[in-house]
């Protein structure tokens, strides 16, 4: 039987997985964004495109680096959900 506790734990686990998968990309974007902002403040360059291009490249690089790990995490999570379907239905 599906209880409110089960629904909350199921949703929390899904959100945790989403944050784990998005974390490396967000972290790379954050670090590069802060570095570019400090560079702009020091050099007084106020070019708007200077902030976007390094962040986009950093996120793309992080996707390339962490893609195997992200796929493994998603496959394990999905397999766990599929294996436990009989328990969820009871």
From TrEMBL:
Fetch the InterPro entries from UniProt.
Bac_export_3, FliQ
Q: Per the UniProt record, which residue ranges are transmembrane?
A: 18-40, 52-71
Does the keyword Acetylation feature in the UniProt annotation? no
Tagged with keyword Membrane: yes
GO biological process annotation, one example: protein secretion
Compartment(s) of residence: Bacterial flagellum basal body; Cell membrane
Q: Name one GO cellular component term.
A: plasma membrane
Keywords for this protein: Bacterial flagellum, Cell membrane, Cell projection, Cilium, Flagellum, Membrane, Transmembrane, Transmembrane helix
Topological type in the membrane: Multi-pass membrane protein
Instruction: Spell out the protein name for this chain.
Output: Flagellar biosynthetic protein FliQ
Instruction: Give the species.
Output: hydrothermal vent metagenome
């Amino acid at each position: 039987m599906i209880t409110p506790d089960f629904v909350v734990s199921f949703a929390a686990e899904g959100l945790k997985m989403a944050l784990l998968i998005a974390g490396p990309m967000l972290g790379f974007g954050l670090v590069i964004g802060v570095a570019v902002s400090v560079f702009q403040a020091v050099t007084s360059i106020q070019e708007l495109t200077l902030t976007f291009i390094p962040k986009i490249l950093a996120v793309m690089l992080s996707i390339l680096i962490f893609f195997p790990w992200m796929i493994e995490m998603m496959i394990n999570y999905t397999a766990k959900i599929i294996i436990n379907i009989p328990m969820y239905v009871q």
